[in-house]
Specification:
Pfam families: Usp (PF00582)
Structural class: alpha/beta
Domain UspA: 147-286
Helix content: 25-40%
CATH class of the largest domain: Alpha Beta
Protein name: Universal stress protein
Family: Belongs to the universal stress protein A family.
CATH superfamily of the largest domain: HUPs
Distance between the termini: 10 Å
Order of helices and strands: EHEHHEHEHEEHEHEHEHE
Organism: Geofilum rubicundum JCM 15548
Strand order of the largest sheet: 3-2-1-4-5-10-9-6-7-8
CATH architecture of the largest domain: 3-Layer(aba) Sandwich
Amino acid sequence: MILSNIAILLDLSEMDNILLNYIKRLNEKYHFKAIHLIHFMEVEEMPPEILSLFPDLDQSVDEMIAQEMREQIDEFMPKCGEVADVYVHQGGKMEAFLEWMENQSFDLVVLGKKAAIHGSGIFSGKMVRLLNTSTLFVSEMARGDIHKVMVPIDFSEYTNNALKVAKEASDLLSTELIPVHGIKVNMQYYPYVKDREELNDHFIKAAKKKYEKLREKLKIKADCQYFVLAEDGHISKTIYDQATFQSADLIVVGSKGKADGSDLLIGSVAERLISHDKNIPVLIVKK
């Protein structure tokens, strides 16, 4: 996955400082060729009654926002000034903004994932669903120091691609790679099996064979970790619990997997991992 042309979506909140610091750290390794700071104005235009309160303004609102973002570059990313630019999208039309984003051919879109900092997450949810670009969600607790990268796999094409991207990131950032595979056994399909542990072992052995083939293909040194899911549990919770237990700094997931079938769909695992109450940054890899 080549990362040279990236977009950072800013909303003029405290989250912007966190995003810029995070990307500044990543840039030390990736050396991005172009960094675009982007703000989407959700209103079509400022109401006249609001503008009348500021008769001495010599700039339009979008010009003031652009100036503020340029100042953020100078403050937080001074070494990136030559490759960084700003863009304020006016008009308040989400469809037009998404079309513009697609036409830019960004390699990565970076958004903030808010919890304590007020934010509904509706905008971010739309972006990740409708854009065909890989998306990095940075939590407000993130500081850019990445030591462990966890990647859940289900051996579908989508998660295999996520594993490849995670390996590339791990190699470049000199981090520990932690592949994980969750096994969910629905016992109602095996009514005559008395020994559940034996059945679990069977599925784990089958998964290990698949992983060894994938490991050889991608030249991965890391072992895969396997866990059995509770029948009534959701894989996203187990993944997040594992990531927390392992002190993972980044979770890499595919945007679509075998489920509603296996569960790694945006709208399922990925959607739950980027919910406001999760504090680990998540990279959602698109094909």
